[in-house]
Design brief:
Blueprint: H1 2-7, H2 13-30, H3 39-43, E1 52-56, H4 60-64, H5 72-90, H6 97-101, E2 105-113, E3 119-120, E4 135-136, E5 141-148, H7 151-162, E6 167-174, E7 177-184, E8 190-195, E9 199-203, H8 206-216, H9 228-234, E10 241-247, H10 250-259, H11 269-275, E11 278-288, E12 291-300, E13 326-331, H12 333-343, H13 348-363, H14 368-374, E14 379-386, E15 397-404, H15 408-423, E16 428-434, E17 437-444, E18 448-457, E19 460-465, H16 467-474, H17 485-491, E20 501-505, H18 506-520, H19 526-532, E21 535-546, E22 549-558
Antiparallel strand pairs: 1-2, 1-10, 2-5, 3-4, 5-9, 6-7, 7-8, 8-9, 10-11, 11-12, 12-22, 13-14, 13-20, 14-15, 15-19, 16-17, 17-18, 18-19, 20-21, 21-22
Length: 564
């Protein structure tokens, strides 16, 4: 259970998306079935104190869509996972998931309730002069609500479970409802109750099941919580939804988790204040023709939101060659830096570190704010480009930074200062013409250029690690990254306009991994290789249509199934 809890409690938008994805992957291996409705109905049985809830769809049509993807090896891995799961279910009891569970299980909601307050690990009377007791971290509590779509099949399963060898079951009454305690010989007890013959509520803790019954009897529910009804009803717009995550009160959730932590009093008050910028979150994962698509939405307080979002036209992607296998792009580094500097005033330790960095750059005649970040005011992109030549021969790739700027004069002055600094380290500085562009290179004897920089046009400057990367940028390209088939398949369908991209070509990345694995004689495990070989790539982007809303979208692009 602790592992499940940890997956559900990472308090960021991107992490909420990952939560939905991890739940989806888990349920895929376990072979879900059932209908796709019921998130709002399940939430009516969850106490209003719940911090967040995840609803897992068990609609077979949505999950069967995943079967159109994957290499034969990956398909075999999934089949083996199903086979192993069924064997585990039938061990010592002849229970079959397909026959005994699948027919009656509807949608599944996992709710996270607040942990109990942290208590000192002190059981005896304290000794005078002894160290204070250590506080114990309390785990959040989990409630599962399972929709029952076939009451007769559910009853048959319950009776079969009670008859299992080594399984003890005991029933108690709570406000007119039966709570069943079930315990195997070697396991901890679990508690469950069937409510209205339509839902099974389940938890490792009996008080949590009692709270669910209280909610069923009329106590405030998660569905009635301010902000919850809206995000439960709307959800996140993904095709063939597999799982959705709901956090109606983001700052309240994080504060409660911090309060229950032994280190809660060490959290900077300014950090807690930053939480109030985000009001609520929702995330979801679905499957479409491109692969697994994950989206997250954060509702923001426009009065507190300090982030200055900027859309980007992503024209800078056209400066990178098609073989670029990893890239991050965006807009306006200088404005982002100004926001960081402004917020550092509320964090003494961070401000001190910032001043130390400023002092270090001044030692080499550079002003951190003006010379480094000041001119980075337009589009930018950082990319990785494969190459086996020169200084890159041993690692197989080099890096490139490309910036659009409205202040070419300052950018040129900064590059001149860097060249001067390199000369003091006995690095040979040369200039050569590549594709009609003057490129400055830092040469290493017998290995070629270690670093290079130049201008691709009047407003676009590049910095490259490795001479071959500089050549790939400066030479006229027959095909650019944004027009390549891979980029279109991995990132082309992501939301537009947006603030930039994260892009990863898995095939080219795996080629490098396999190369390093061969060199180090540590091959990638076959199971991991089978999964990774089924992935075409990963694309992520974000946008903010107004100061009240922020959206993240991720596509795990999958290869079509080649299994026969």
């Amino acid at each position: 259970m602790p592992e499940t809890k940890s997956k559900l409690l990472i308090p960021v938008v991107g992490a909420a998306v990952v939560v939905a994805g991890s739940v989806a992957a888990y349920m895929y291996l376990k072979g879900p079935s059932g209908d796709s409705s019921g998130a709002l109905g399940s939430a009516k049985l969850v106490p209003s104190t719940a911090l967040m809830a995840t609803y897992i769809t068990t609609d077979p049509q949505a999950w069967e869509k995943l079967q159109q993807f994957g290499t034969p090896e990956a398909q075999k891995l999934v089949a083996k996972g199903l086979e192993d799961f069924n064997k585990e279910m039938s061990k010592d009891g002849n229970i079959s998931y397909e026959k005994d569970i699948k027919p009656w299980v509807g949608g599944v909601m996992l709710a996270v309730l607040p942990p109990n307050a942290a208590k000192p690990a002190q059981f005896n009377e304290p000794v005078p002069g002894a160290n204070p007791p250590i506080a114990l971290r309390q785990e959040p509590q989990i409630l599962m609500v399972v929709g029952i779509k076939d009451k007769l099949s559910a009853l048959n399963f319950a009776n079969k479970l009670k008859a299992q060898k080594g399984v003890k079951s005991q029933e108690t009454d709570y406000k007119g409802e039966k709570i069943t305690q079930t315990q195997a010989e070697t396991g901890a007890p679990t508690y469950s109750a069937v409510l209205n013959n339509s839902y099974l509520v389940f938890s490792p803790e009996k008080p949590i099941v009692e709270k669910a019954i209280d909610t069923y009897k009329g106590q405030p529910s998660f569905a009635a919580k301010e902000g919850a009804n809206s995000i439960l009803s709307k959800g996140v717009d993904v095709k063939n939804s597999l799982a959705q995550v709901y956090i109606p009160d983001y700052p309240g959730m994080v504060r409660q988790l911090i309060a229950a932590s032994p280190q809660g009093n060490q959290v900077n008050p300014q950090t807690l204040k930053q939480l109030d910028q985000v009001k609520s979150m929702a995330a979801g994962v679905g499957v479409d023709d491109a692969g697994l698509r994950l989206k997250a939405i954060a509702n923001l307080d426009p009065q507190l939101n300090q982030f200055q979002y900027q859309n980007t036209e992503s024209k800078i992607l056209g400066q990178f060659p098609a073989e670029t296998f990893a890239l991050i792009s965006g807009q306006g580094i200088s404005k982002g830096w100004s926001t960081v500097v402004e917020q550092s005033k509320d964090y003494p330790e961070f401000k001190q570190a910032l001043e130390q960095v400023r002092a270090q750059t001044k030692l080499v005649n550079l002003d951190l704010d003006k010379d480094i970040f000041g001119w980075m005011d337009q589009e930018f992109a950082f990319g990785a480009i494969p190459s086996n030549q020169g200084v890159l021969a041993s690692i197989g790739f080099g890096g490139a930074w490309v910036f659009d700027t409205s202040d070419r004069k300052t950018a040129e002055a900064t590059l001149t200062k860097l060249d001067t600094l390199a000369k003091t380290q006995q690095i040979n500085i040369t200039t050569r013409n590549i594709g009609g562009k003057d490129v400055t290179e830092w040469q290493i004897p017998q290995q070629g250029a270690l670093f290079a920089h130049g201008w691709l046009d009047q407003d676009t400057v590049f910095l490259a690690v490795g001479g071959p990367v500089a050549e790939a940028l400066a030479n006229a390209k027959s095909q650019t990254l944004d027009n390549s088939d891979n980029f279109k398949a991995i990132a082309g369908s992501l939301q537009k306009p947006n603030g930039g991209y994260f892009y990863l070509d898995m095939d080219r990345t795996m080629a490098l991994f396999n190369r390093f694995a061969t060199q180090t004689q540590q091959p990638i495990p076959p199971e991991a290789n089978a999964v990774l070989s089924s992935i075409r790539g990963l694309g992520i982007t974000a946008n903010s249509p107004n100061k009240s809303l922020s959206q993240v979208e991720m596509l795990l692009a999958l290869k079509p199934s080649t299994a026969k």
